[in-house]
UniProtKB/TrEMBL annotation, chain A:
Topology class, membrane: Multi-pass membrane protein
Domain of life the protein comes from: Bacteria
Protein name as catalogued: Cytochrome c oxidase subunit 1
PROSITE patterns: COX1 (PS50855), COX1_CUB (PS00077)
Domain Cytochrome oxidase subunit I profile: residue ranges: 10-522
Originating species: Allobacillus halotolerans
Automatic annotation (TrEMBL), chain B:
InterPro entries documented for this protein: Cyt_c_oxidase_su4_bacillaceae (IPR014257), Cyt_c_oxidase_su4_prok (IPR005171), Cytochrome_c_oxidase_bac_sub4 (IPR050968)
Species for this entry: Allobacillus halotolerans
Transmembrane segment boundaries: 29-48, 54-74, 86-109
UniProt keyword terms in alphabetical order: Cell membrane, Membrane, Transmembrane, Transmembrane helix
Domain of life: Bacteria
Upper classification of the organism: Bacteria, Bacillati, Bacillota, Bacilli, Bacillales
Membrane topology reported for the UniProt record: Multi-pass membrane protein
Protein name listed in UniProt: Cytochrome c oxidase subunit IVB
Similarity field: Belongs to the cytochrome c oxidase bacterial subunit 4 family.
Length: 621, 110
C-alpha cells in the first residue's frame, strides 16, 4: 500500500498538485476530466440538433444557431472529447504496460494537456462573444473565408492551440515507447494497446502538420489579408479540402486505432486466452496506418478530381478494409473456445464488433466513387461515421475507462449499473443511427436546418431523436455510477480483472514511481506468464535503488494561458489594433515561461532506497 | 581478480573506441570536404547560366545527397541504436513524398 495515496490532503493542496503535476497518471485524470466535460458539452449540442430534427419544419432553434451547433458538435467531439479521452487512456495504461516509471518528457506531457484545455476553452468562448463557428467541422473554403463575425477565427486559433498540444503528446509517446521499455519488453512483446498508442502517435506526428498548415493559411486569409483560398486573387479553394483531409483521414485512424488497442486488451483478458494472431494484429495496425495516408481524396470524390484520381483513391480506400477484416477475425478467434466473462468492458467489446463492421461496410460502399455521388453529403455519411466513431471509438473509450478505472481511482465501477449503461447506450446508438442510413438513401441532406413534411422522412427522424435520448440517459447513469462508486464501492486490489499485462502487477492506483524495481519481462502477456509459470509476481530486473523523479511545475499551465491570451489578441486585432497589446502580452508570458524553463536547472528529485523499503514489496497485493 | 579482468576489458574497450572515433573523424572530414565541393558545384552551375532543365535537377540531387551526409555522418544515424529514428525518418519522407506527389498530380495536372 503506498503511503502517498492514503495521505489526506486539503482541497487547495490537491488542486495545486494537479495544476502542477507531471505524473502521467494524474495527467491521465486531467485528460479524463477535460475530455469528459467536452463530451457532455458536445452531447448537449447533439441533443439540441436532434430535438430540432424531431419533426418536419421545426423551429426549436434558429438556422444560424443550428449551423453553430452542428459545427461545434463535430469539432468538440473529435478534437476535444474523443482525442483527449483516448489520450487519458494512453497516459494511464501505456507507461505501465511497457514497464516505465513515467513518459519520456513529463513536462511536455503536462504542456500537451494544458494546451488542449486552453485551446478548447478559447474555441468555446466564441459562444459568448457573438457566435460560434458555423461552417461545419470541416470549415470548407470559401464558406469559412466569408463567414461573418469571429466564429471561424476562434476555430482556427483554438484548434491551432489544441493541435500543438496533441502534437506534443504524440511525440512524447513515440519517444516513450522507443526508449523506455522495461528490460525484456521487446517491441513484439508489447501489449497491443501500447502498439496502437505508438502507431496512433506516428499518425499524429505525420498528419497534424497538414492541419497546422491549413489552419495557418485560413488564419492568414481571414485576419491578415492573405488570399490563399481566394480564386479571384489566384488562390485555390480546393487546397483547403486537400489539406484538411490529408490530416482528416489519418485523424479518423488516430481515433480508431487506440480503440482497437483497448479491445485487444479487453477481449483476451475476459476470454482467458492470449490474443489470437498477435503479430498479424501488429502488422494490420501498421498497414492501416500506412494506407490511411493514401486515401484522403475519398472525401472529395464529388469535387471533380476526374475519373482516374477517383478510381485510384477508391481502390486504395477499399484496400483498408482488408487489414481491418484481419483484426475483426482475430478478435473473434480470440474468443473462440475461451472462458468468456461478460463484464461491462467485454459487453462494449462485443457490441463493438457488429457495430463497427456495419460502419466498415458502409465505408466500402462510400468508397465506391461512382456510388458516392449519390451518398455524398446525405445522412448516409452521417450514419457511416457515427457507426465507426461511436460504435468503434466511443465504445472503445468506455470499455477502456471501465477497464482501467481501478488503475486511475483505485475502485472498480459498479458493474450492475455499467451493464444498464451499456444496454441503454447500445440500443440508443442503433436507434439513432441505423435508420439514418435510409434517411440518407431517401435523399435527406446533411447539415440542413429543417426537412419538409410529407417526404417520408418524419418517422425515422422521430425515432432517431428518441434513440438520442436513450444514449443521454445511459451517459447520465454512467456519471451517477462514478459518484456512487466513489462513495460506496470498496477499494480494488491491484489486479481486479485477473489481468495479463504489466499494469496489473502494481497496486491500484500505482505508487507515483510505478515500479519500485523495473520488472523483468519474459514474453507476451508478462504477468500471465508469471501467473502460470512463476509465483504470480513480476521478478525484478534491477536491484532496489534510488529512483529519480521529475519535479512538479506550474510552467506548462502558465505557458498555455499565455498562448491562449495571445490567441485572443490575434483574433481581435482586426477590429482594433490595441488588441496587439494583448497579443504581445500573451506571447511575452509564453516565451518568458519557456525561457525560465530553459535557463533554470530543474534536476528533479530522488526517492531514496530507505524510504522505498518501508513501502512494502510494490506488488499488486 | 574480478577487478583486473574488468580493467583489461576496459582498456581493450577504450582502444576499440579510440580506433572507431578516429575512423569516424576521418569520415567526417571527408564528407565535410565533399559537402563544400557540392556547394561550390551548385553555385558554379547557377553562375555558368546553363539551361534550367539541367540546373534544377542537379541542384536537387546534390541537396539530397547532402541531407544524407548530414544524417549519417554528422547526426550519427548509421550508429547502433538509431534504427527507430532511421525507420521513422524514412517512412516519414516516403509518406510525405507520396502525399505531395499525389496532391500535386491531382490538383495541377489532373
Ligand atoms: C473500412 C474503413 C472505412 C472506409 C472504406 C471509409 C470510407 C469513407 C468515405 C468514402 C467517406 C466519405 C463519404 C462522403 O463524404 O461522401 C467517409 C466519411 C467519413 N468517415 Fe469513413 N471510412 C472507413 C472507416 C472510418 C473510420 C474508422 C472512421 C473513424 C473512426 C471514419 C470516419 C469518417 C468520418 C468522420 C467521415 C465524414 C467526414 C465528414 O464529411 O464530415 N471512417 N468514410
Ligand atoms: Cu476518410
Amino acid at each position: 500500500m503506498s503511503a502517498t495515496a492514503t495521505k489526506k490532503a486539503g482541497f487547495g493542496s490537491v488542486l495545486w498538485d494537479y495544476l502542477t503535476t507531471v505524473d502521467h497518471k494524474k495527467i491521465a485524470i486531467l485528460y479524463l476530466i477535460g475530455g469528459f466535460f467536452f463530451f457532455i458539452l458536445g452531447g448537449l449540442e447533439a441533443m439540441l440538433v436532434r430535438i430540432q430534427l424531431i419533426q418536419p419544419d421545426n423551429n426549436f432553434v434558429s438556422a444560424q444557431f443550428y449551423n453553430e451547433l452542428i459545427t461545434m458538435h463535430g469539432t468538440t467531439m473529435i478534437f476535444l472529447a474523443a482525442m483527449p479521452l483516448l489520450l487519458a487512456l494512453m497516459n494511464i495504461a501505456m507507461p505501465l504496460q511497457i514497464g516505465a516509471r513515467d513518459v519520456a518528457f513529463p513536462f511536455v506531457n503536462a504542456l500537451g494537456f494544458w494546451l488542449f484545455l486552453i485551446g478548447g476553452i478559447v474555441l468555446n468562448i466564441s459562444w459568448f462573444t457573438g457566435g460560434a463557428p458555423d461552417a461545419g467541422w470541416t470549415a470548407y473554403t470559401p464558406l469559412s473565408i466569408f463567414s461573418e463575425g469571429h466564429g471561424l477565427d476562434y476555430y482556427s486559433i483554438g484548434l491551432q492551440i489544441a493541435g500543438f498540444g496533441t502534437l506534443m503528446g504524440g511525440i512524447n509517446f513515440l519517444v516513450t515507447v522507443i526508449t523506455m521499455r522495461a528490460p525484456g519488453m521487446t517491441m513484439m512483446r508489447m501489449p497491443l494497446f501500447s502498439w496502437t498508442t505508438f502507431i496512433a502517435s506516428v499518425l499524429i506526428l505525420f498528419a497534424f502538420p497538414a492541419l497546422t498548415v491549413g489552419l495557418f493559411l485560413l488564419t492568414f486569409d481571414r485576419l491578415f489579408g492573405a488570399n490563399f483560398f481566394d480564386p479571384s486573387m489566384g488562390g485555390n479553394v480546393v487546397i483547403w479540402e486537400h489539406l484538411f483531409w490529408i490530416f482528416g483521414h489519418p485523424e479518423v485512424y488516430i481515433l480508431i486505432l487506440p480503440a482497437f488497442g483497448v479491445f485487444s486488451e479487453v477481449i483476451p483478458t475476459f476470454s482467458k486466452k492470449r490474443l489470437f494472431g498477435y503479430s498479424s494484429m501488429v502488422f494490420a495496425t501498421v498497414l492501416i496506418a500506412f494506407l490511411g495516408f493514401m486515401v484522403w481524396a475519398h472525401h472529395m470524390f464529388t469535387v471533380g478530381l476526374g475519373p482516374i484520381a477517383n478510381s485510384i483513391f477508391a481502390i486504395a480506400t477499399m484496400a483498408i478494409a482488408v487489414p481491418t477484416g484481419i483484426k475483426i477475425f482475430n478478435w473473434l478467434f480470440t474468443m473462440w473456445g475461451g472462458t468468456l466473462r461478460f463484464t461491462s468492458p467485454m459487453l462494449f467489446a462485443l457490441g463493438f464488433i457488429p457495430s463497427f463492421t456495419i460502419g466498415g461496410m458502409t465505408g466500402v460502399m462510400l468508397g465506391a466513387a461512382a456510388a458516392d455521388f449519390q451518398y455524398h453529403d446525405t445522412y448516409f455519411v452521417i450514419a457511416h461515421f457515427h457507426y465507426v466513431i461511436v460504435g468503434g471509438t466511443v465504445f472503445g473509450i468506455f470499455a477502456g475507462l471501465i477497464y482501467w478505472w481501478p488503475k486511475m481511482f483505485g475502485k472498480v465501477l459498479n458493474e450492475k449499473m455499467n451493464h444498464w449503461f451499456f444496454w441503454l447506450f447500445f440500443i440508443g446508438f442503433h436507434l439513432t443511427f441505423f435508420l439514418q442510413h435510409f434517411l440518407g438513401l431517401m435523399g435527406m441532406p446533411r447539415r440542413y436546418w429543417v426537412f419538409l413534411e410529407g417526404q417520408g422522412l418524419d418517422l425515422f427522424n422521430f425515432i432517431s431523436t428518441i434513440g438520442a435520448f436513450f444514449m443521454a440517459a445511459g451517459t447520465i447513469l454512467f456519471m451517477y455510477n462514478i459518484v456512487w462508486t466513489a462513495m460506496k464501492e470498496p477499494k480494488a486490489s491491484g489486479d481486479p480483472w485477473d489481468g495479463r499485462t504489466l499494469e496489473w502487477a502494481v497496486s491500484s492506483p500505482p505508487p507515483h514511481y510505478n515500479f519500485k524495481q523495473l520488472p523483468l519481462v519474459r514474453g507476451l502477456d508478462p504477468l500471465w506468464i508469471e501467473k502460470t509459470e512463476g509465483n504470480g509476481k513480476m521478478q525484478p530486473a534491477e536491484p532496489l535503488g534510488d529512483i529519480h523523479m521529475p519535479n512538479n511545475t506550474i510552467i506548462p499551465l502558465i505557458m498555455s494561458i499565455g498562448l491562449g491570451i495571445a490567441g485572443m489578441g490575434i483574433i481581435y486585432q482586426v477590429d482594433n489594433p490595441m488588441w496587439w497589446i494583448v497579443a504581445v502580452i500573451g506571447f511575452i508570458i509564453f516565451f518568458g515561461s519557456m525561457a525560465v524553463r530553459s535557463l533554470k536547472d530543474d534536476l528533479g528529485h530522488h526517492i531514496h532506497k530507505e524510504d522505498l523499503e518501508k513501502e512494502g514489496d510494490g506488488s499488486n497485493g | 581478480m574480478v577487478d583486473q579482468n574488468y580493467s583489461t576489458n576496459q582498456t581493450e574497450k577504450d582502444l576499440f573506441y579510440k580506433e572507431k572515433k578516429k575512423e569516424e573523424m576521418k569520415h567526417q572530414v571527408v564528407t565535410f570536404a565533399m559537402m563544400i565541393i557540392f556547394t561550390l558545384i551548385a553555385f558554379g552551375i547557377v553562375m555558368a547560366d546553363v539551361s534550367k532543365m539541367f540546373t534544377i535537377p542537379i541542384i536537387i540531387v546534390l541537396a539530397i545527397v547532402q541531407v544524407g551526409f548530414q544524417f549519417f555522418y554528422f547526426m550519427h544515424m548509421s550508429n547502433e541504436g538509431h534504427t527507430w529514428p532511421v525507420t521513422m525518418i524514412f517512412s516519414g519522407i516516403f509518406a510525405a513524398f507520396l502525399t505531395v506527389l499525389a496532391l500535386t498530380t491531382i490538383v495541377w495536372w489532373g
